[in-house]
Amino acid sequence: MTLASGVKLGGYQIVSPLGAGGMGEVYRAADTKLGREVAVKVLPERLAEDAEALARFEREARAVAALNHPNILGIYDFGREGGVAYAVMELLEGETLRDRLEAGAIPVRKAIDYAHQMAIGLAAAHERGIIHRDLKPENVFLTGEGRVKILDFGLAKRTSTSGADEVTSAPTLSQQTDPGTVMGTVGYMSPEQVRGLAVDARSDVFAFGAILYEMLSGRRAFRRDTASDTMSAILRDEPPELLESGRNIPPALDRIVRHCLEKNPAERFHSARDIAFDLEAVGTASTSGTARPETLPGRRIRMTPALAVAVMAAALAAGALLDRVLRRPPEPALVAIRPLTHSGKDMLPAVSPDGKTIAFTSFRDGTPRIWLKQIATGDEVALTSGSDFDPRFSPDGAQVLFLHGELPLAIPVTSTDADLYRIPVIGGTPRKIAVRTGDADWSPDGKAIAFVRVNGVPASSTLSVVGSDGGEPKEIYRVSDRLLRWPRYSPDGKTIAVSSYPALAGGSRIDFVASDGASHRTLPVPPSLGLISSVVWGASSRDLHFAQALQARYGGSRLVREDVRSGAAKPLVWLPFEVESLDSLADGVLVADGATARQNLAEIDLADPAKPPKWLTRGTSADRQPVFSPDGEWVAFSSNRSGNLDIWEVSTKTGAIRRLTEDASDDWDPGFTHDGRLIWSSARTGHLEIWQADADGSSPRAVTRQTADAENPTDTGDGWIYYALTSSSHDGLWKTKADGSGEARVGPCVNVPEVSPDGRWIACPDLNVGPIRVIRTSDGAVVPFTVDVPHPRTTDTQMGRARWSIDGRRLYFLGQDDNGVNGIYAQDFDPEKSDTRASRRKVAGFDPNLEAESFAISPDGKRLVVAFLERLYGISTIEGVPAAARRSASR
């Protein structure tokens, strides 16, 4: 059946044909209701007339549509019109993976990227109980932007198997799941599919392995002359070695492929999520492949026949053993997470050298102090009087190092206001070691202490070493525009690892500094907007463990093991809390603090702010950065509720919630243009750029093309978008047209700019030290006016954006009152006056049980939406961690 241009199927008007095949014809069409282009697949007549098959198709289409995943083709609608059954899908521009493979093997890095996206998509479906059952290059689409989309996910296909001897046509067989029925595509079936057995997600894993093999080698894994021979090869043969392709295939990548292609389902990867973890580790590490051994000078060994036979036999035996070891890795250890403390206000643990005691910071009684906990008995006792935090045991276990000052829960720390002390474990008078320091650590011999300092704005950080009895510190490392935390000596005392990240956004890494300051180098970590914890060295100084936050704020963490020399990173386990500090308790056991939080949106009536707020969202997710749509009926916000950081919006009238962005990368900093388009910051290109979409999130497109982080877009109403550029030598306030033209630096503001309603002024809160400055948009000049914010030093509330009143005469901002409670203030704005503090007043918030973190003002100025934060801190053990070894106590 061929449809002519202009034919209507429901609310969709056919434009032109896109292609045809055994599963029907596909057309470009116009969605007349929403004004967008879509793809319409007209289903084969035999499917449309089979009531059972059509019902199954509709059930599975509903399930796939509910996934709403960026790596799975979106299904919008299905219906029947005049006997024609059709499905409405996302319209893609690009080519199938099969088309791409016609040109031969794919570059290794690109193949890893494609495979990682496929694995993420498969994992999302498998976790919802949906199995593809017909994964093949024809069903993998590559968009022009490099996005991978899995097609025909879970759709029922009923194609005859007769005449299926031509492998290149890749016939699709029945997808019934009853045992005894063959299902799948010849060449990509799993052995259990070939045998007609029941299948599960591991069949998709096998097909995935065949596709990855083909991307890397440029040839099909089990290709034979006929379909029956191909199926026989799937059951009995191993594909040729990838190294025979002549390409530099990383051994770790080869092992992933082989692990996917195991004949026995029990010996394959058990989940696509595990594959994604391993691919991410391979992609982060060097992909230089297998190096050829160098020829070394020296004596030549004359290879006699007898010696040759002996060497060959030994090599074969070793090879067989190595093959079994590499291709059949041991079952992963079961990881258990067990709470150690229960007050909800405990953090920053350190383990004594004998593993019997844990020192930690607790503010359970309102004052941060160092507490000790005996592992065997569970007894807990305060060691210091406060305000003290960040303990570290001396190598002999007799002393505890700690910081005395204000506990900086704000992350990243941007100033150093504490002094470094040590105190005997049995108690006594603390002894001052150094002033104005940050986190510190003892050297393994106990003779030296390394500590960091963070200085001013723009931020610079130093690493210094001082004697354990004090004295004049020696600076051994300095870095600009980065923040250093958590110095940790290697077991041999030769190297200090420091967690390092930019002053304002993204790009965490580990800096290695020689303990004498003679050299230093950096080690990248897997990409994430989240920060990394302190590191735990392995006993041999060859690897280390750390936790990496999954998102910029308040998400979970993943525990990572990384090779110090190669940079190969292995994600080990997901943790349901955000970790700052790690230490080793025993072999295979780590101790971690964990911050858990929920952050929800509440609407406040400014005419009666004392009235209880109306909750717009209420759950366990982190909903923050609210902003009103121009009509005031919706509030957009960033949230981790999907397991990813995306932009959502909620109706202030009905409470309806809908997702606006769905990319696997982090999306945050939402805003609206005056004409209703969505703008936000996205990490889709590997760093943050400004993106723009229609009000419903459709038709996303990049606005900026920077090489650094572009964040916090705000619109003037006359066609300009202002934003902050960070992590660059050109930091500051920038502007651009919506089409990306006219990009230019305006001024020095680098923090959450907010344009006034008339477009004349831009408020720039300084997240580091508190003042809000105002820039004139006409010339980029900083006006005399400033707001000296009551700066919160015990929370990270300073992340909140300042907002303008609707008449532009006042600024609303977040601050802390004299009792340390967060809330929203208002203060008059006068560009000719430097100080209007007399007009400052409290507006809303200031609830000791709810921490105001970010907020928005409605377009009519009558309502306020506040992201209120509730959080707990606890310390837990993580047991069953592979390769985590306990360092021996010093004697």
SSE blueprint and pairings:
Blueprint: E1 8-9, E2 12-21, E3 24-31, E4 36-42, H1 45-48, H2 51-67, E5 75-81, E6 84-89, E7 94-96, H3 97-101, H4 108-126, E8 140-143, E9 148-150, E10 172-173, E11 184-185, H5 191-194, H6 201-217, H7 227-236, H8 251-260, H9 272-284, H10 305-327, E12 336-339, E13 346-351, E14 357-362, E15 369-374, E16 380-382, E17 388-393, E18 399-404, E19 418-424, E20 431-437, E21 440-442, E22 448-455, E23 460-467, E24 470-480, E25 482-489, E26 495-502, E27 509-514, E28 520-524, E29 536-537, E30 543-549, E31 557-563, E32 569-575, E33 582-586, E34 589-605, E35 614-615, E36 623-628, E37 634-639, E38 646-651, E39 657-659, E40 667-672, E41 678-682, E42 689-693, E43 701-702, E44 709-715, E45 720-726, E46 732-737, E47 744-747, E48 754-755, E49 761-765, E50 772-776, E51 782-787, E52 803-804, E53 810-816, E54 822-828, E55 841-845, E56 851-857, E57 863-879
